[in-house]
Amino acid sequence: MLSKEGDPLMPCHPARARELLGKGRAVVARQVPFTIRLKDRARAESEVDGIQLRIDPGSKGTGLALTDEKKEVDEQGAVVTVRRGLVAVELQHRGDQVHRSMQQRAGYRHRRRSANCRYRKPRSINRTHPTGWLPPSLHHRVDTTYSQAARLCRYAPVTDIHVERVAFDTHAMSEGRALTASEYRQGALAGTEARAYLRAKWNNACAYCDATGVPLNIDHLRPRSRGGSDRISNLVLACAPCNQAKNNTPVEIFLADQPDRLAKIVRQLRTPLRDAAAMNATRSQLTEKLSDLGRPVHAWSGGRTKWNRSGMGLPKTHTLDALSVGRLDHESGDAIVRYPGRVVVVKATGRGSYARTTPDRFGFPRLRRSRTKQYFGYATGDLVRAKLPTGNWAGTWTGRISVRANGQHSLTTSAGRFNVRHRNLRLMQRGDGYGYSTRPEP
Asked: pLDDT tens for residues 308-366?
């Protein structure tokens, strides 16, 4: 809720917001997150205690929660802290999509350069990165989390920020157990090399057909093109026919008719470390970035978050983890007494593409993209409300649109996707690079 000058006030109950809108004392300032602006009250005339923003970062999703804390006296006369969840937001990143797009662009450029400069000598890798540089797929996670935190601080009186800053022990995760001090200095390839290690592990035979006495290649169980890594647990030996037949097919599909062999091979696969590595790389930069909001930033461990959530008997979700971030001595009577029943799901979709042509699967231009972003006052990604008088989709629908030059726009809703004329649309909120939906909190 905002004052008449646009300053943030304390959040109110949805029933109170409906009452203020019905009496004409407020207007809708933003649809998602739903925000109203009062027309007859200034911030100086309101009592603003302040609330907290709690963040649980993740590799694929991040939970954000607005909470308030009050001191109350329990039945025994002790003063305890009571925490209430006011707003819950689940931010879904698109780091994997950015990574795939970067790989696709690199492939297109490699093909063009190899075709046009076939005999060009290799150039040295002399490009440097500034201090704190992150790949675009990781930098995206920091930027989108900061963007949502800044938006919540703009519409709510946030006084301090609590963020979970967790470090993953990738070496122990790779082994699947706790390690001693000396074991951290030795890995699977201690005293040997990858090919010798694989030959000893697979008895100089193909992992797919047990062929021996033939040249053996090193194959990735999870192909690199499908997110696989070069970890030794992801490598096997394969003869040339099996290596060519498998290509980039997932091993579960390639060996679907050999369940025993598949179980033997999959048994050696270990927990992927991509998500843990992404969190280790971004945890410090996220904390530094959040300090630009001008609020005190408090970092907490993941163990404390788990201890708080388990003590309150809450299931594990990003939003409930965010609600549990920070100091909460539940053994002394502190408690979480309420959490939002509906979670706002914010999915990062981007603002379109800079490409001027649409390529085919070989990287050749297939058609030219339009230079016009808006048609009939609407742009792709806008949140609109459609009223259809007749047809199979008759009724009122709300969703995001994809515009066309002929005015027959495509509307995506929770019930499906259909076409609608621009004259039947009403703009609710301009596209901002995110898609919005809701889900119930378990």
From this structure: 999 999 999 999 999 999 999 888 888 999 999 999 999 999 888 888 888 887 778 88
Whole-number pLDDT of residue 352: 80
Residue 267 vs residues 87, 260, 337: alpha-carbon distances, Å: 42, 11, 44
CA angle 85, 90, 95 (to 5 degrees): 150
Question: What would the two tokens of residue 117 be?
Answer: 């400069």
Please tell me the predicted confidence (pLDDT) of residue 122. 66
Task: Supply the mean pLDDT for the chain.
Answer: 88
- Return d(Cα 35, Cα 20) in angstroms, integer: 12
pTM of the model: 0.84
Question: Distance between CA atoms of 309 and 322, rounded to whole angstroms?
Answer: 9
Q: What is the pLDDT of residues 65-86, one digit of tens each?
A: 999 999 888 888 888 889 999 9
Q: For residues 287 and 306, what is the distance between their CA atoms, to the nearest angstrom?
A: 20
pLDDT at 118: 66
How far apart CA 354 and CA 32 sit, in angstroms, is 27
Cα(57)–Cα(168) distance, integer angstroms: 13
Tokens of 265: 């091979």
CA distances in angstroms from 160 to 12, 54, 290, listed in the order given: 20, 9, 10
**367 DSSP β-pair partners:** 358
Using CA atoms, how far apart are residues 190 and 176, in angstroms rounded to an integer?
18
Tokens found for residue 110: 């490699």
Residue 347 — left, alpha, or beta (φ > 0 → left; ψ -120 to 50 → alpha)?
beta
Specify whether the CB–CB gap between 93 and 61 falls below 8 A: yes
Distance between CA 195 and CA 216 in Å, rounded?
10
